[in-house]
Predict the structure.
Amino acid sequence: MSQMNRRRALQLLAALGTTGLTAACGEAGDDGSAPAGSPIKIGLIAPQSGGYQAIGEEIVNGFQLYLSLHGQRLGGHPVTLLTADEGDSAKTGTAAVESLLRQGALALTGVVDSAVMVGIRDTVEKARVPLIGSNASPKSLQSVVYIWRTSYVLDEPGRALGPYLAQKLSAGSRVAIIAPDTLGSRDVIEGLKGQFGTAGSADPRLSAPVVWTNPTVSPGSTTYTADIREALSRKPDAVFCHFAGAAAAQFLKQLYREGYRGPIYAPGFLTEGTVLGDAPEAEVSNVVTALNYSADLNNTANRIFASAYRKNHNASPTTYAMASYDAAQVLDKAIRLAGSNPTAQQVNLALGKIGQIDSPRGAWQFNQPRTPQQKWYLRRVQRDGRLLSNVLINELATLG
């Protein structure tokens, strides 16, 4: 071969190599689509500090666990998981969304605080990028196109627990309701009260005014003392409350310190995650909760999920981790359905077609408002071996 022909052959090989490399790298098209098999980016929004930090860590853990069990791919595409700090306000949440969108996220997930979810709604809808919320889900979040949730609607814990509590409490009982003055608490309490009374009248067992507490997510050792004393001055037969994360642990400590030893009913967030590790057994032994998940559910999907989670994190999984795991599963199905070059809009359309999800919580599917139709469970705090656990008692209802 002549020197000229050899040089020409090398030039052709170089050109082919460059073309092949470009195809392999899969540069995004002008429409924001991702070429077949090319890496995609998913943005995860969660608090990285403050009272909800532990919940944020659970959400990250759940999503990453699904990726690790599925070759770090969603819908056949290698995934880069981008994270952004949710912060504690609509402003910080919006900044997190905008940061992830600038980095080219095909879809978003996460969000712990209901106020943040409401605050980012318009930004997400305007961007036309799907958000699979894995925790925050206020009842007021309606008529959305790009926001889906794998968690629940916040009035549902109260709706699930209400019939059980109405049957459990005698006619002359009195219930003290204590909760932070937040959007989520008002949804929960509205759901509870909707299960009591007839013909729209208020049930006398819940007739006392709600004791609203400071809505801080990082309370001190006396933050709730005055409010608890006010509630206990009514001599209640039971307490219903709504707290999560660090606030839940502090509330239980202060309620016990003020001498209350009666039954406590609540959405399951009260004793999820690190709360049981932070509270002595005496403080939580009389707690009964309602939630859409229990780590001891006996189904194949949960055996795989819970076993892998315990192996990776040396702890039982929570509803927060489970819902985030399901958010990854939902995106996996939707991205695959969207085809080889998915855009955010195509993924959003595909989300409405994925059908039933084989979840650790039990099978569920999206309803018209883009939230799960799912079972709710009654749980009691008790020892499971050497550890305090939320032990499944029975099913309560199917809601959604």
Observations:
- The chain has two domains: 40-152+298-366, 156-291+379-399.
- Residues 1-32 have pLDDT under 50 and may be disordered.
- Residues 384 and 391 are 8 Å apart (CA to CA).
- The domain at 156-291+379-399 is CATH 3.40.50.2300 (Rossmann fold).
